[in-house]
Structure formats: C-alpha cells, structure tokens
Give the backbone structure.
Amino acid sequence: MVWIKGSAHPDTSNVSGRAYVQVFGLPICVTFTMKRRTRRVLAIVAIGFLLVAVGALARPIIHLIYTASRDVRGPESLPPGYVDDASRLNRTKVAEVWKVPVDSQDPERQLAELLRRAQASGLRVSVAGARHSMGGHTIYPGGIVIDMTPWNRMQLDTARDTLWVQAGALWKDVLRYLDEHGRSVAVMQSNNSFTVGGSISVNCHGWQFDRPPIASTVQSFRLMQADGTIVHCSRTENPELFSLALGGYGLFGIILDVELRVVPNERYRLEQYIVPIDDSLATFDSKVAGRSDVQMVYARLNIVPDRLFDDVIINVFVRDPHGSIPDLSEPGMAELRRAIFRGSAESDYGKELRWNAETKLQPFLIGKVFSRNQLLNESVDVFQNRSADSTDILHEYFVPRHRVAGFVEAMRNILRKHRPNLLNVTVRSVNEDKDTFLRYADRDMFAFVMLFVQQKTAEGEQKMETLTRALIEAALEHEGRYYLPYRLHATREQFYRAYPQAREFFALKRKYDPGELFQNQFYVKYGKDQD
Ligand SMILES: Cc1cc2nc3c(=O)[nH]c(=O)nc-3n(C[C@H](O)[C@H](O)[C@H](O)COP(=O)(O)OP(=O)(O)OC[C@H]3O[C@@H](n4cnc5c(N)ncnc54)[C@H](O)[C@@H]3O)c2cc1C
C-alpha cells in the first residue's frame, strides 16, 4: 500500500512531501522533492499506460463484437425435395426423404417394404444419420434418403457394461443417458452432434488416449440387407460383414442397432504443455506416453500465419479420482467461445487472439476438474460456419510416428504456397485398427485434423480441390492416408493408393448387394465402373 502527503511550492518548480510505503506490512516513510516537469512526465506516462491498457482491451472487444454482429443465426433452408450435408456444397434433388417410423407396430417390416418399393421402381437408396459427412456420402441424386434419426432408443446392460442403442441416436442423447448411470462412451468424435450409425459407418475416432477407432468398441450390430433380411454381425457371427459395414459408408445395408462397450464416467484434471514444435514428440514421450492415468489427449498447432506450426499446445486429461464427479451440464460460455473461434476466420489478428486465449487464459484452467462426459459433450454449433458465402471444410491425414516431422514440414510448405484460410489443426494419436476392412489406421498413427474456410464459389471449390490433392500427396509420401468422410477431392488414383484394399471392398459390396441398391456419391466416384 502507498499513500502520499505533500505540497507544491508556488515560487519554485518543485513539489515536496512524504510518501508512506508499506513493505511486508511495515510502514516506511520516504521524503521526496519532485520537480514539476518530472510530475508532468509521470502524468503523461500514467495516461500513456492507461491508453495502452484501454487499447489492449478495446481491440479484442471490438473484434469480438464485430464478429458476433456478422454471425448469421440459423441454417439456410433448402427448397422442397432437396437435401445437403454438412459441407453445404452438395445440394441435390432426391425422390424422397423417408424418415424411419417410430409410431408403427412393426417399423422394421416397413423399412423392408420401402427397400422392395425402391427396387421395384429402380430407385437407389442412401442412408443418412446427422449428415455431417461432407462428400454426399448420404446422398444419391434422384434416390431415396433414409433418415435414421428417429430411431434413438437405448438400454444399458450394467452387468456387461454394454449399451444397446438404435443407430439414429445422437451422442448428446447417449451421453446424457450414460451419465445418469455413471458410464461414458469409450470412443467417439470430439463433438456430440453425430449419430451412432453414422459414426460406426465411417469408423470415427476421437481424442480418447491409447485407443483404436470406434469399431474396437462395437460388440455387434443388426444389419438390414438389400433384400430386407436382417443379419446379426459380430466378430464371430458374419465376421466378414462385420468388418465391411464398420467403416462401410452405408454400402452394405442399414445398421439398425448396435451393442457398444462403455466405460466409467470419471473425473479428469487438465495438464497443459506449450512447446516448440521440434520438442513436441519428446514432450509427448516424457509427459504422456506410457502413463496409465492419461485418458484423453489432443494437441493444437499454432496457425498464426507468421508463426505457422512453430509451437504446439498439448492438452492432457488425467484421472483425478479424489473428489466428486461434476454434474453434466450445457457447455459454458458458448457465445464467447463461438465469437473467439469465428473471429479467427476473419483475420490474422483473430487467429492471434485465439492462440493467446488458448495459451494464456487456458493455463488458468490447469487444476480445474472435468467429467469425461462433459468433455465429450460439445456440440458442433459452437463453431459451425453459418455464412451464406463461405463454409468450413474438414480434412484429416494419418501418418505413422516416424514420418510426423517430415509431414508437418510438407504441410507447412503446402499451406505457405496455397495460402488457404486455415482455422484449426488438431493432432491426436490413433491406435491400430484391427476390425474394419477399409481401415485408415493400419498401424498406430498420428491424426492431423484440419479445418479450412472455403468460399462457396467455383473458384473456392477449385482452390480447395488443388490444396486437398497436394496435402493427400504429402500424406501418401509420408506413408500416410487421408480420412474418407470429407470432400471427394482425392483423385481415383490417390484413393486407391491410400486404400489398396478398396478394389476388394467394392467387389464385396457387389457380392452382398448385387443390385447395387445402396449407393451414394462416394460409391459413384470411387466404387463404380472400376478399371
Ligand atoms: C464438425 C465436424 C467434426 C468432426 N469430428 C470428427 C472427429 O473428431 N473424429 C472423426 O472420426 N470424425 C469426425 N468428423 C466426421 C464424422 O465422424 C463423420 O462425418 C460421421 O459420419 C458423422 O456422423 P453422422 O451421423 O453425421 O453420419 P452421416 O454423415 O449421416 O453418415 C455418414 C456415413 O454413414 C452412413 N450411415 C449413417 N447411418 C447409417 C446406418 N444406420 N446404417 C448404415 N450406414 C449409415 C451414411 O450412409 C454415410 O455414408 C467430424 C465431422 C464434422 C462435420
């Protein structure tokens, strides 16, 4: 504490007095004589500090208000008879969108009848969950789209720790239900907005540490095939269909319901490491790998253009068993987090602000505890692009650990050359997948999830295609693969290099579905008319 007592001398240019300063609780008295000029300089410095402080706060506040004021509220509506997906670039006319019925006595018989009707009228059928795939994987032009979302019932078997769940259920509903029973999802994406059926049909993965993709948690499922028959698939019953339909993009039939292995809901504490990119793998080895208390991990690369990929934040969630598990609630500060995120799409300053928020504010969270379910309970609404002019496009590349450094360097060069509007790069580890046929993790991999803003114009589309092909090429050169649920920009040649098992995969599709009833844009581009 400081207090000052003094007086000015009108006949001189001096101000004198006594200042009392408290140091560690002891009052110390200092007598001083200050020149008027000195006082003026001090006043100017104080005003300067004030202006800098106001300026430092004003810029981010103005930036966030500007971002929020430009944010559009709702999704665009589609003309009747049209469907689209999360890319908002696949508007397509279809014959019909058929919602699976919930109010009838025998809904599965009705579904089988629909398949017969489609076959009789020569229509193709595609299956849709929450439609967050981005390449028309849920759409066939002029076909029938089966909307699975009404089938969302679930039942936990506490003795076996398995969840029976209908394929149209969203993770947000699954999490709410499991939370009431002290359980959680073993593997899912980083957001809760997807259906169980869509998630296992792409074989999703998340940031659950030391885990293969979701197929590893599937015990069994029931599949309706093209002729309307229902088969039970597991590792011992119809094992070939089991491995084909998991990660099978709806080409082998309709997954009706699934038995999933679940895990306990637990309390976690955050540890955070902010390191130069060259130290990131060593930090991963010393702070994360081999620890049994580590449960969820993701890293984020710095995307500020003049420091592109120079440093990394590694977020590690460790078991913290001493204390109660926080209740599941709606994620907090959604509006502010959205403004910070969307603001990073607007300018380099926005990207800098977001990086600073994550590296300087987030450390205050260290020591804060979270429930596993809360961490998983994040909707895509928080960051979704709602603009009519642009859209956000995801990419994902998987590379083995010994090629990570080379791939990061290649990515950086490609991004510096093409200069896209990059919003995010998250890195996770994915363990080898031993369950699915069309597998992307044929060994332990590091996954790079990238989000870009794209203009919804022919030029924007062209630029994104060129960029995607360059990044896929870099992944392939580094023994890697790319993820299939996004835009269909890979050439056929790139697709078959990334997935050498794909020829057999599509041949088996035609064995199980000889009339090619189940089709979508992904199948049309890569699966049909093979040379
Ligand atoms: C913002 C965002 C974040 C994402 N984050 C991740 C992530 O962290 N990890 C990750 O792995 N992926 C991620 N993805 C990709 C996501 O996992 C897939 O797009 C997934 O398919 C979404 O589920 P959905 O219910 O929207 O599926 P849809 O897009 O509706 O369907 C996907 C595929 O599954 C088929 N399908 C759907 N339901 C059934 C069924 N019942 N029977 C048979 N086939 C069916 C469809 O025909 C289609 O081919 C993300 C996507 C977005 C847009």
About this structure: The domain at 267-498 is CATH 3.30.70.2520 (Alpha-Beta Plaits). The CA atoms of residues 267 and 321 lie 6 Å apart. Confidence is low (pLDDT under 50) at residues 21-26.
